[in-house]
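re: ur question from yesterday

yeah so i grabbed the chain u mentioned. its 331 aa long if i counted rite. heres the sequnce exactly as i have it in my notes:
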Amino acid sequence: MIKIFKTSESFVLLLLVVYAIVVNFNLFINPPAFITSSSAPLSQWLLNGIDFIAQGNSVVLSIIFLILVLMQASILNFLVDYHKLFNAYTSLPAFCYILLIALFNEHIYFSPAFFANFAILVTLTKIYASYNTQSYTYPFDAGFAVGIASLFYFPAIILSIFVFIGLGSMRVFNWREWLLAFMSILTPYVLLCTAFFMGDGLSNFLQTHLLSGANTIITPVTLNFELIIKTGIILAIILIAMLFFQGQFYKRVVKIRKMLTLLVHLMSISVGAFLLINQFSLVPLAMFLLPLSVFFAYIFFEVKSTLTAELIHISILLPLFFFQYATIYNF
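ran it thru and got these structure tokens back, copy pasting raw so excuse formatting
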């Protein structure tokens, strides 16, 4: 299977759809609760739209969720291929993202952080596109996208740090660009506050989003055997990926090295979102899985032995299916 997803043939897209259904089939059997309230305005509007389309049908909700996962996976894969972060075109980043989302799908299911990933992908796209250019458009767009992401999930505001690190890495320092990026992060708030002010809803917005945004759809998690195993899997992926990443890093051109380093920064800063929530939850993990998927794909791409790659894949699939169906059938 890994050998198939190493390619970027057109038929692989259909296989990704089938794979996404298989690894997320628990959502059809025992769908998580669909929480229709959010303190983040953009998430609330999106949830209202999804609820209107699904009309409470759990199967339709699961299908919509899988479509959104596939869209994010496709955008991420296109970004990796377009900038040639790997030595060949591949479908592995999309494959790995789908697999990692499935590992935590009950916690990420229609979460605000999951919605924010679309804006985060735009941010990453604009930062990458800003390499060695003089245009002020990219810094503004990158900051604006982070502002939008925080309106989906307030703790995503911490990615403002990533914007400035990205500009410092990809472009020659220019204080005007940094000021523009800062202003662009605030621009969505200025526009939305104006709209709420005209509709007499400004005080409610400030109270629910800015003051209570850290509580946006909290799914409390307690330390248990499942969490320990899944955390161990994530840590193992990070350690092994960094070994492969370190071995290949200096073999790449400067531009690609900068882009890969930015993914490390994105992954590190995303962890900071956990510090902005009042009660521990795995919801912020959705943002962390975006860059991690690329490094996870590096493992499969660089492993020479097909058997080794398949064993790594199976070692993740087994606990994934076990915990998904152990919950459903209480064993």
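noticed a couple things. Residues 2-329 form one domain. also The CA atoms of residues 38 and 44 lie 5 Å apart.
anyway ttyl
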